[in-house]
């Protein structure tokens, strides 16, 4: 039976029932002196803390309003299997309030408004030492768990833009909205490398390539933290999940990863190392085990690599329930206390969600199994974060700010620009796109008039804040020539009657637009087909969506398919039969407007694929940077190829690459070469092209990928305009781990490849010799 918790606003945050005299009310102490450095204040404060107060700083709980909602949805039996909702059986509202006042809670998550954040902070201010709370939230692409926030395109969409400046700008704006709503810490960027597109969380990543993920991750961190994150408009970023969640053995979240140390260091570690170099102040361990050792208990990952080798100065937070899962799931600890001991010893600093953690810490210290010095190592960076954020001096937020900053016009502009630059044109047979306003357009599909454009990690947003594809098309063409058939907004629930109606109406149109794909909305559990913990065994269109497209196509009129999705969709029939395919991913609040602008040619598509699309799920692993022997043999039942390659994307312009050159054919030591190529727009349509640089090592001691991305640049070209694009190549860009696991650049020949995608046909090559 569940413990009931009553949480009306009048009772949930009532402070009058708690009588306590905070230490800071009696005298001003050094840690309260804003003129001292953050380090001085931390050292003074920690010297005054009890073991219980230190354990409290290491404990994160879900917000009180969230608990009330979770109680409605879950039984106590369901609690251990939920990775999204939580409450605390046996603890009522007054218990939790008293725990805050007693200094037993240091952080909250799932707090989504300034009113609740302030109420919690007021409780913390009554504690003996007055240590403020740090509030974290999953602001993955905008502060989208908050109603009325700006929802930017999801990370996989942003990666398609290859525009790090835009990603950085969106992160700056998101930080402002977060602080206005009382949050200080975002659980992003997700810099997992995706090797299995069946994984449900592809949409919250930047794709399959180490270099692209690294560049996008660093831009995200720089935008959120803006240096050391001191100030009231900045937040702490979080590098997650360390490491390997995007390459589980079966595509399922939490499932194991088993790879060599060379693969870890060559492919998976670089984005995280770059995050440390960029100043990221928190890490999150991965759900999964790595080579037989759960990440949450891996001293190799959390201490040897992260702290000893990379000199990470911040703190590590667990993922949801994962410390206890060392006991309950991975079975490397015999009980909860042993799980806590293993995780904290390995390098874990803060436990996300769970009231038993601090009790275990106290017991372990009492038994001598954990030292107070170990707790200090965890608590110091947590306190440092709170001082830098200014929480000790200004813990409360002006509750009128949210209304001013949420969905700010400048933020809307950035979200729309990013959506425009994130849409990939995959096919345009006989150039049927762009549409013209004289054509009679028929549009249908489960995602045509749905909020699925918002993507995962968003909660319901005001109708006026979301432009659907139908609304975008009707806004651009007000003549009435756009006819819409509503067949519902569930990709799982298309009926034969819907298909028959659509087929009939398509006959009267000049061209049909069918908007299909996935449902990533976490507030629609029954209809959801992608997102966190929603992996798929197949990558085709769910349900009867392909039947719908085939029926409309049978009419004999051109068909444009628009995909709204958070992972690659593998449908060879579409690639081989329909006239045009637009990959819109999850384009956010203004996704429908951006899609309509691309379809009508008001925006020239410029995005490129940040992930390969396999011909089928049987073709996985399907990455572009595979080893030379990968395709030495062929499949006998299906073509041995991908549907679409990494870096691929069409335009309404026609770009020509010419005159590839290098300023020196041989380099040694610290020398570098400059590779240049001319790009010409051979069309009457202005457009942006994303020029890509890859390297290929001719011969190496250990096998290397056939090509590896090492640079990209977005260039804008007017009709008939030519621009030269140049890249600097140095030995560090050519290095890898040799047989002795040394990071070296071997002498020999390298091919420098430049072009419009990773496809061989789209690349020109020039040779560089390294001495």
Q: TL;DR?
A:
The protein has 771 residues and is an alpha/beta fold.
Q: Show unreliable segments.
A: 1-21
How many domain modules? 3
In DSSP terms (H or I, runs of 4 or more residues), the helix count works out at 24
What oligomeric state best describes the polypeptide chains here?
Answer: single chain
Q: If you consult CATH, what is the topology of the largest domain?
A: TIM Barrel
Strand ordering within the main sheet: 11-16-15-14-12-13
Name of the CATH architecture of the largest domain: Alpha-Beta Barrel
Proportion in helices:
25-40%
Q: How far from one another are the termini?
A: 72 Å
Mean pLDDT: 94
Number of strands: 28
Form type: globular
Molecular structure report:
This protein has 771 residues and is an alpha/beta fold. The chain has three domains: 52-403, TIM Barrel (Alpha-Beta Barrel), CATH 3.20.20.300; 423-602, Glycoside hydrolase family 3 C-terminal domain (Rossmann fold, 3-Layer(aba) Sandwich); 655-770, Sandwich (Immunoglobulin-like), CATH 2.60.40. 30% of the residues lie in helices and 18% in strands. The strands form eight sheets. The chain has a six-stranded mixed beta sheet with strand order 11-16-15-14-12-13, sandwiched between helices. Strands 4-3-2-1-10 form a five-stranded parallel beta sheet. Helix 3 (51-57) crosses helix 16 (372-388) and helix 14 (336-346) packs across helix 15 (356-366). The N and C termini lie far apart (72 Å). 55% of the residues are buried.
């Amino acid at each position: 039976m569940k413990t009931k918790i009553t949480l009306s606003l009048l009772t949930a945050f009532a402070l009058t029932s708690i009588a306590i005299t905070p230490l800071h009310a009696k005298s001003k102490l050094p840690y309260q002196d804003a003129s001292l450095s953050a380090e001085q204040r931390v050292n003074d404060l920690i010297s005054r803390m009890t073991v219980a107060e230190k354990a409290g700083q290491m404990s994160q709980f879900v917000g009180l309003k969230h608990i009330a909602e979770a109680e409605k949805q879950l039984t106590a039996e369901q609690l251990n299997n939920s990775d999204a909702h939580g409450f605390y059986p046996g603890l009522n509202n007054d218990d939790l309030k008293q725990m805050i006042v007693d200094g037993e809670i240091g952080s909250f998550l799932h707090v989504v408004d300034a009113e609740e954040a302030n109420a919690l902070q007021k409780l913390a201010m009554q504690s003996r030492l007055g240590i403020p709370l740090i509030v974290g939230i999953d602001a993955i692409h905008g502060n989208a768990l908050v109603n009325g926030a700006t929802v930017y395109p999801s990370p996989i969409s942003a990666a398609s833009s290859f525009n790090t400046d835009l990603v950085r700008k969106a992160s700056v704006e998101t930080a402002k909205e977060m602080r206005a709503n009382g949050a200080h810490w975002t659980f992003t960027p997700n810099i997992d490398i995706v090797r299995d597109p069946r994984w449900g969380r592809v949409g919250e990543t930047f794709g399959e390539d180490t270099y692209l993920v690294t560049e996008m991750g660093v831009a995200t961190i720089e935008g959120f933290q803006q240096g050391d994150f001191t100030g009231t408009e900045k937040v702490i970023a979080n590098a997650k999940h360390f490491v390997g969640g995007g390459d589980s053995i079966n595509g399922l979240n939490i499932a194991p990863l088993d790879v060599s140390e060379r693969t870890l260091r060559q492919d998976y570690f670089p984005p995280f190392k770059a995050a440390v170099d960029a100043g990221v102040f928190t890490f999150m361990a991965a759900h999964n085990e790595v080579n037989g050792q759960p990440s949450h208990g891996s001293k190799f990952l959390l201490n040897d690599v992260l702290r000893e080798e990379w000199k990470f100065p911040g703190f590590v937070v667990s993922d949801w329930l994962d410390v206890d899962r060392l006991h309950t799931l991975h079975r490397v600890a015999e009980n909860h206390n042993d799980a806590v001991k293993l995780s904290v010893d390995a390098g874990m600093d803060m436990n996300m969600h769970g009231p038993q953690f601090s009790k275990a810490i106290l017991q372990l210290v009492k038994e001598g199994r954990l030292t107070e010095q170990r707790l200090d190592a965890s608590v110091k960076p947590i306190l440092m974060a709170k001082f830098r954020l200014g929480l000790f001096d200004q813990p409360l937020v002006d509750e009128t700010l949210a209304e001013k900053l949420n969905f700010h016009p400048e933020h809307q502009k950035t979200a729309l620009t990013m959506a425009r630059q994130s849409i990939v044109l995959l096919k345009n047979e006989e150039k049927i796109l762009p549409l013209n306003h004289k054509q009679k357009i028929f549009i249908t599909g489960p995602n045509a008039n749905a909020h699925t454009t918002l993507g995962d990690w968003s909660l319901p947003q005001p109708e006026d804040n979301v432009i659907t594809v139908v609304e975008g098309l009707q806004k651009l063409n007000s003549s009435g020539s756009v006819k819409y058939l509503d067949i519902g907004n569930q990709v799982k629930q298309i009926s034969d009657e819907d298909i028959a109606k659509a087929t009939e109406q398509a006959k009267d149109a000049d061209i049909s637009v069918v908007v299909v794909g996935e449902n990533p909305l976490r507030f629609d559990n029954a209809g959801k087909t992608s997102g966190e913990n929603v992996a798929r065994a197949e990558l085709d269109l769910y349900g009867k969506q392909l039947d719908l497209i085939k029926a409309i196509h049978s009419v004999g009129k051109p068909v444009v398919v628009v995909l709204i999705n958070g992972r690659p969709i593998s449908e060879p029939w579409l690639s081989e039969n329909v006239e045009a395919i637009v990959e819109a991913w999850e384009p956010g609040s203004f996704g429908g407007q951006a899609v309509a602008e691309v379809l009508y040619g008001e925006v020239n598509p410029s995005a490129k694929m940040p992930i390969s699309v396999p011909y089928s799920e049987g073709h996985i692993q399907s990455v572009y940077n595979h080893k030379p022997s990968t395709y030495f043999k062929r499949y006998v039942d299906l073509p041995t190829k991908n549907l679409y390659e990494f870096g691929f994307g069409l335009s309404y312009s026609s770009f020509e690459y010419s005159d590839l050159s290098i300023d020196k054919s041989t380099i040694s030591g610290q020398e570098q070469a400059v590779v240049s190529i001319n790009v010409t727009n051979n069309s009457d349509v202005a457009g942006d092209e994303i020029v890509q640089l890859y390297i290929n090592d001719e011969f190496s001691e250990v096998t290397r990928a056939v090509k590896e991305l090492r640079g990209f640049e977005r260039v804008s070209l007017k009709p008939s305009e030519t621009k030269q694009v140049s890249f600097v190549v140095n030995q560090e860009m050519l290095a890898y781990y040799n047989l002795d696991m040394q990071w070296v650049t071997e002498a020999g020949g390298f091919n420098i490849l430049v072009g419009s995608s990773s496809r061989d046909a789209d690349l020109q090559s020039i040779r560089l010799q390294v001495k």
